[in-house]
C-alpha cells in the first residue's frame, strides 16, 4: 500500500458513504463546488513521483550519509551534549509527547504542563530570578524579545547596548529586532564601562563568545543608575558553577537550554529561556505555566497571565509567540530531573576540567591563551595559523572555530573523551597536562538550586522511564484520539520522516559546520525548498523562520524593507481582516507597522466596502494586507483576488497567511491568486508534530521582487551588525541560516512520499471530512459560516451563542464535557466568541469521525435537558464536567445525575475510557495567586471532607 493510502483516514467505501450523505458523486465534485475556480493552480503542480516509505528512508539515509559529522568543539551557543536514551526514546521519539497540542485545555494537559513547570523551576533556580516562561525559540531571538520587553518597561529610552562579547548571531538578530521597533543599537565593549544616556537597557554576555568571564555587576549598576534594565545572556550549564544573574542584580536572564540533552540538529529546534524579576512578569513574552486549583481544591497546572494573549490582545500583545519549543523544553527539563543538581554540577566540572586541562597544555607548549578565566571555551592566539589548525583538526574529525587569522576557539562539551583532548592539544604542537580551575573566584556560585524533590529523587533509568510514562498518561494526544482543532491542523505525523531526525548524520551536525561537510543537509533543504516553491507558486523560499509567527514577522519585514528600498518609508499601515489569525496583528506591530482592522461581511468574508474605506483613509501609507486563506471562518472566500487587486492598486503588498494551507496543498497556490508573500506552517500542513506547543517551522515564500529581502544569514560579525541597517537586503530572523533544520526531514519525507497527487488527495479528504462533520452536526450545533452551496473549507465554526442564551451552557462547558468522552476540544472562542472551530483533517477515518459526532450529539441531548427545564444548569452533568476516576468512585457523590452519566455517557467508553487527572480548573485563582514553580508535595494532600464545599468556577464567571 502506498503512503498516502495509509496517511488518509477514510478508505474508498467510507469516502463514498460521506459523499452520499453530502449529495456528491466524487470528492473532486465536492471540492470544485466548495473552492472558487480562480483559486486553483493555473498549471499542473510538478513534483517528483511519490516514494514508498522504504524508498524515502533509503533516500534519507543516503542524504545523512553525505554529511561528514565532525565532533563539535565549535561552541558559539551550540554545544555537544548527550541525550539520555531513556529521554530520547521516551520523549523525543514517543508519539504521546510529540503529537500533543499546546496545553490550552489544561485538564487534559497536566503531564506536559508539569514537565514545562519543571523547566520553569529549573530556569528560575539557575538564573536566580523568580519568574520564567515555558521556553522561547532560540537564543538570538530571545535576546530580541528581551530588548522588546525592556522597551515596553522603560518608556523613555531609545537606545540599547549590546555586549560586543555576545555571539555574532545574537548580535545580528537582536540588532535588527531592535531597529525594527525604532531603537538605536550600540555594540560596545562593556568591559570598558557604560557611556551615554537615554538607554532602555543592555544585554550582557556571561560568559562571552570567546569564553571569557567578567563580573557584570558594575555594568548592571551603571545601567540601573540611568534608569535602564539589564539582561544577562547566560550559559545554563555554567550557572551551576557561576553566581546567578539574579544574585548579580540582573532584571532579565536569557539563553539556550540546548546543552541540556538536546541534539545539535544543525541549528534547531532548541528551547531558549527567559527569566525576569517579579515586577516584569506581566511584560514577559511567551507562555507561562502556573499553578491553580481544580474544582475539588487539588493543585492543577495551567497556562497563566498571557494565555493565547497574542490572539486576544493582538497588536497590544507582549509578543507574537504562538509556537515555542515545548518538546525541546520538556527534553531539557527531563535532563535536569534525570541528572539532578549534583549530576549537573559533575557534568559542568568535567566540562570545565577538560577546558582547563586544554588551556594548561596549550600554555605549556608556548602558545598564548587569550583569557585567564573561562568555563568551557578557550581562545588561543596562533599568529596567522588559525585556518591551518582548523583544517588539520577537521581532517582528524574535529570542528573548531576561528576568529580572523590569529585566533582559534575551542569549546568543550559533555561528550569529550581523553582521546579528543589529546588530538586537540596535539594540533597546537603540545601534549596533555593537568590544569587547575579557571573560574573567577569572585563569581563562584553560593546559592543552592534544584532543591525540589522532583530533581532529587528520579535518577535511575527505571524511575525516569516511569516518570515520563506517568506524565504522558495524564494527557490526551493524537496517539489516543482525534484532536479536532480548527486553525491548527492536527494530522498524522508520519513515522518514516520522524524516525530520521535523531539519526547521527542529521542530529549531530553543528550549524556552523563548513558547507563542504554538510552536503546531505544542504541537498535535503534545497529539495524541500524547491518543492515548497512549486506548491506555493512563489519565486523562492527561506526555511530560516523557526515558527509560524516568526515566518509572519520575516514576511512583513521583507515587505517593509522592500518599501524602504523604493523610498516609500511612509508605507507603515498593515490592513488585517477581523477574520485573520490573531498572531497577524502582533507580528505587524513587531515589524513596526500600524494595524488597521478590516470588517467582516455578514457571510464571514472580508467586507469589500470597508476595505475600500480603509484604503482611502490610509492612501499612500498602505504597506500590506494580511489575508488568511481560507479564512479562519472556515470558508473559501471568492473575493480574495479582488482584495489583492485593490491592495496592489493602492501600492500595497499582499501577505497570504499560509496557516490553512491544508485546504490548498496540491490544488491552489497563493502565488497564483494574488499573494506576494506567504508563510507556511510545516507543523500543520506538512506534518512536523506540534510537540505540546512546538517545535514549529514557518518558512516564507516570496514573489520575485521580494527575493532580495528574504532572511539574511545570521552568521555575521558584530562589526557589520553594528552599522546602520541598509535599506537593501533582508535581515536575519533566527540564530542559524536554516532555522530549525533538525525537523525538516519530516516535511521532506511527507512531500516525497505524497507527490503532487497525494497532496491533492490529502487536501480533498480534509475538505470532505470537514463538510461531513458540518453536515452531521448542523442540526445540533449551527454552522456559523458557509460558502458556496452551503459548504465549508477544511474546518467549520459551530455557533453556541444561541444555545447559551437558551440554556446557559457555554462553549467552554462543551469543551470540558468533551473530555469525558475522550476528546480534545475544538478551538474555543476563536475567531468568534461563543463558538467551537472544528477541523478533523484528512487523517481521521469514518469511525473516529462518527465517534466525535456521537459525542457531540450526546452533549446536545444533555443541553436539551437543561433548556427544557428538566435539569438545572448549575446541577447539570455538563456544568460540573469533567470527572476524574477518583471523583466517580469515592464514597461521596454530591450530584443528582448518576456516576455512569458522568463517566460513561456512551457505550463506546466502556472498554476505552480516558480519565483526566484533575477536575475543571479555576483559571482566575491561578492568576490571582501566581505560582510558576513546582509546588511542594504537601500541596497535593487535601482532606476528602473538604471536597463538598468547593464548587466549579466557570470560565465565564472568571472573566466577569
Automatic annotation (TrEMBL):
One of this protein's GO BP terms? glycine decarboxylation via glycine cleavage system
Q: Give the UniProt entry's GO cellular component terms.
A: cytosol; glycine cleavage complex
What Enzyme Commission number(s) appear in the record? 1.4.4.2
Q: Which domain of life is it from?
A: Bacteria
Transmembrane ranges?
Answer: none
This enzyme catalyses: N(6)-[(R)-lipoyl]-L-lysyl-[glycine-cleavage complex H protein] + glycine + H(+) = N(6)-[(R)-S(8)-aminomethyldihydrolipoyl]-L-lysyl-[glycine-cleavage complex H protein] + CO2
The modified positions for N6-(pyridoxal phosphate)lysine read 684
UniProtKB keywords: Oxidoreductase, Pyridoxal phosphate
Top enzyme class, one word, equals oxidoreductase
Q: Which SUPFAM superfamilies match?
A: PLP-dependent transferases
Cofactors (names): pyridoxal 5'-phosphate
GO terms assigned for molecular function:
glycine binding; glycine dehydrogenase (decarboxylating) activity; pyridoxal phosphate binding
Q: What does this protein do?
A: The glycine cleavage system catalyzes the degradation of glycine. The P protein binds the alpha-amino group of glycine through its pyridoxal phosphate cofactor; CO(2) is released and the remaining methylamine moiety is then transferred to the lipoamide cofactor of the H protein.
Task: State the oligomer form and interacting partners.
Answer: The glycine cleavage system is composed of four proteins: P, T, L and H.
PANTHER family reported for this sequence = GLYCINE DEHYDROGENASE (DECARBOXYLATING), MITOCHONDRIAL, GLYCINE DEHYDROGENASE, DECARBOXYLATING
Indicate the family of this protein. Answer: Belongs to the GcvP family.
Q: Name the chain's protein.
A: glycine dehydrogenase (aminomethyl-transferring)
Provide the species name.
Corynebacterium liangguodongii
Amino acid at each position: 500500500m502506498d503512503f498516502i493510502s495509509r496517511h488518509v483516514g477514510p478508505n474508498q467505501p467510507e469516502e463514498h458513504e460521506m459523499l452520499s450523505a453530502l449529495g456528491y458523486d466524487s470528492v473532486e465534485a465536492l471540492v470544485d463546488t466548495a473552492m472558487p475556480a480562480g483559486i486553483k493552480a493555473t498549471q499542473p503542480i510538478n513534483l517528483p513521483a511519490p516514494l514508498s516509505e522504504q524508498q524515502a528512508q533509503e533516500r534519507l539515509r543516503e542524504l545523512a550519509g553525505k554529511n561528514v559529522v565532525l565532533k563539535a568543539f565549535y561552541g558559539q551557543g551550540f554545544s555537544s551534549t548527550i541525550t539520555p536514551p531513556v529521554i530520547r526514546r521516551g520523549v523525543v521519539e514517543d508519539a504521546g509527547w510529540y503529537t500533543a497540542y499546546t496545553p490550552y485545555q489544561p485538564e487534559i494537559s497536566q503531564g506536559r504542563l508539569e514537565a514545562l513547570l519543571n523547566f520553569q523551576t529549573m530556569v528560575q533556580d539557575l538564573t536566580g530570578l523568580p519568574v520564567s516562561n515555558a521556553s522561547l525559540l532560540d537564543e538570538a531571538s530571545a535576546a530580541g524579545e528581551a530588548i522588546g520587553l525592556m522597551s515596553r518597561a522603560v518608556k523613555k529610552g531609545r537606545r540599547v547596548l549590546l555586549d560586543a562579547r555576545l555571539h555574532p548571531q545574537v548580535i545580528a538578530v537582536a540588532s535588527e529586532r531592535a531597529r525594527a521597533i525604532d531603537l538605536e543599537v550600540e555594540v560596545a565593549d562593556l568591559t570598558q564601562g557604560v557611556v551615554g544616556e537615554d538607554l532602555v537597557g543592555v544585554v550582557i554576555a556571561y560568559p562571552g563568545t570567546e569564553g571569557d568571564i567578567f563580573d557584570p555587576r558594575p555594568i548592571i549598576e551603571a545601567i540601573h543608575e540611568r534608569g535602564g534594565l539589564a539582561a544577562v545572556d547566560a550559559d545554563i550549564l555554567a550557572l551551576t558553577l557561576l553566581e546567578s544573574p539574579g544574585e548579580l542584580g540582573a532584571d532579565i536572564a536569557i539563553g539556550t537550554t540546548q546543552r541540556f540533552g538536546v541534539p545539535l540538529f544543525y541549528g534547531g529546534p532548541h528551547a531558549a529561556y527567559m527569566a525576569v524579576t517579579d515586577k516584569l512578569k506581566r511584560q514577559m513574552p511567551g507562555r507561562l505555566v502556573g499553578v491553580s486549583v481544580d474544582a475539588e481544591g487539588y493543585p492543577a497546572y495551567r497556562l497563566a497571565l498571557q494565555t493565547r494573549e497574542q490572539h486576544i490582545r493582538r497588536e497590544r500583545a507582549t509578543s507574537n509567540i504562538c509556537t515555542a519549543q515545548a518538546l525541546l523544553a520538556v527534553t531539557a527539563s527531563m535532563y535536569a530531573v534525570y541528572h539532578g543538581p549534583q549530576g549537573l554540577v559533575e557534568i559542568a566540572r568535567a566540562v570545565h576540567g577538560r577546558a582547563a586541562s586544554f588551556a594548561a597544555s596549550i600554555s605549556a607548549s608556548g602558545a598564548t591563551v587569550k583569557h585567564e578565566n573561562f568555563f568551557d571555551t578557550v581562545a588561543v592566539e596562533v599568529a596567522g595559523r588559525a585556518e591551518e589548525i582548523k583544517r588539520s583538526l577537521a581532517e582528524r574529525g574535529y570542528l573548531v572555530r576561528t576568529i580572523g587569522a590569529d585566533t582559534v576557539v575551542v569549546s568543550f562539551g559533555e561528550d569529550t573523551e581523553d582521546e579528543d583532548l589529546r588530538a586537540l592539544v596535539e594540533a597546537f604542537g603540545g601534549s596533555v597536562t593537568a590544569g587547575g580551575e579557571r573560574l573567577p573566584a569572585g563569581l563562584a556560585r553560593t546559592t543552592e538550586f534544584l532543591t525540589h524533590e522532583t530533581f532529587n529523587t528520579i535518577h535511575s533509568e527505571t524511575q525516569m522511564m516511569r516518570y515520563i510514562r506517568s506524565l504522558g498518561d495524564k494527557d490526551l494526544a493524537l496517539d489516543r484520539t482525534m484532536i479536532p482543532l480548527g486553525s491548527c491542523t492536527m494530522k498524522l505525523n508520519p513515522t518514516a520522516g520522524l524516525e530520521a531526525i535523531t539519526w547521527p548524520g542529521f542530529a549531530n551536525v553543528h550549524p556552523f559546520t563548513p558547507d563542504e561537510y554538510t552536503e546531505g543537509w544542504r541537498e535535503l533543504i534545497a529539495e524541500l525548498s524547491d518543492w515548497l516553491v512549486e506548491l506555493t507558486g512563489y519565486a523562492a523560499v527561506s526555511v530560516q523562520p523557526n515558527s509560524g509567527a516568526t515566518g509572519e514577522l520575516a514576511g512583513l519585514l521583507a515587505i517593509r524593507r522592500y518599501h524602504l528600498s523604493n523610498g516609500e518609508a511612509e508605507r507603515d499601515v498593515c490592513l488585517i481582516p477581523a477574520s485573520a489569525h490573531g498572531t497577524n496583528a502582533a507580528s505587524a506591530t513587531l515589524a513596526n507597522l500600524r494595524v488597521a482592522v478590516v470588517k467582516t461581511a455578514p457571510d464571514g468574508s472580508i467586507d469589500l466596502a470597508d476595505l475600500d474605506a480603509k484604503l482611502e483613509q490610509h492612501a499612500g501609507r498602505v504597506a500590506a494586507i494580511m489575508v488568511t486563506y481560507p479564512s479562519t471562518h472556515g470558508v473559501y472566500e471568492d473575493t480574495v483576488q479582488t482584495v489583492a487587486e485593490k491592495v496592489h492598486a493602492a501600492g500595497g503588498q499582499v501577505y497570504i497567511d499560509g496557516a490553512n494551507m491544508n485546504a490548498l496543498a496540491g490544488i491552489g497556490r497563493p502565488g497564483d491568486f494574488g499573494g506576494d508573500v506567504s508563510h507556511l506552517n510545516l507543523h500543520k500542513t506538512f506534518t512536523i508534530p506540534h510537540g505540546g506547543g512546538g517545535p514549529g517551522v514557518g518558512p516564507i515564500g516570496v514573489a520575485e521582487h521580494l527575493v532580495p529581502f528574504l532572511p539574511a544569514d545570521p552568521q555575521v560579525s558584530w562589526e557589520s551588525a553594528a552599522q546602520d541597517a541598509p535599506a537593501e537586503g533582508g535581515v536575519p530572523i533566527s540564530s542559524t541560516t536554516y532555522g530549525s533544520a533538525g525537523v525538516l526531514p519530516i516535511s521532506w519525507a511527507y512531500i516525497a512520499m505524497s507527490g503532487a497527487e497525494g497532496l491533492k488527495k490529502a487536501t480533498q479528504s480534509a475538505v470532505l471530512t470537514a463538510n461531513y462533520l458540518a453536515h452531521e452536526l448542523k442540526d445540533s450545533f449551527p454552522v456559523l459560516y458557509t460558502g458556496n452551496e452551503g459548504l465549508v473549507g477544511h474546518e467549520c465554526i459551530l455557533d453556541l451563542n444561541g444555545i447559551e442564551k437558551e440554556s446557559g451552557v457555554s462553549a467552554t462547558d462543551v469543551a470540558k464535557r468533551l473530555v469525558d468522552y475522550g476528546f480534545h476540544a475544538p478551538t474555543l472562542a476563536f475567531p468568534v466568541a461563543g463558538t467551537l472551530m472544528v477541523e478533523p483533517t484528512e487523517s481521521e477515518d469514518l469511525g473516529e469521525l462518527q465517534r466525535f459526532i456521537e459525542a457531540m450529539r450526546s452533549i446536545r441531548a444533555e443541553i436539551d435537558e437543561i433548556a427544557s427545564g428538566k435539569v438545572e444548569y448549575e446541577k447539570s452533568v455538563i456544568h460540573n464536567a469533567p470527572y476524574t476516576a477518583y471523583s466517580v468512585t469515592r464514597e461521596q457523590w454530591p450530584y443528582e445525575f448518576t456516576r455512569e452519566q458522568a463517566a460513561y455517557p456512551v457505550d463506546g467508553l466502556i472498554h476505552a475510557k480516558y480519565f483526566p487527572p484533575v477536575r475543571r480548573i479555576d483559571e482566575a485563582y491561578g492568576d490571582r495567586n501566581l505560582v510558576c514553580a513546582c509546588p511542594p508535595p504537601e500541596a497535593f494532600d487535601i482532606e476528602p471532607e473538604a471536597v463538598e464545599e468547593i464548587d466549579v468556577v466557570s470560565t465565564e464567571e472568571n472573566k466577569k
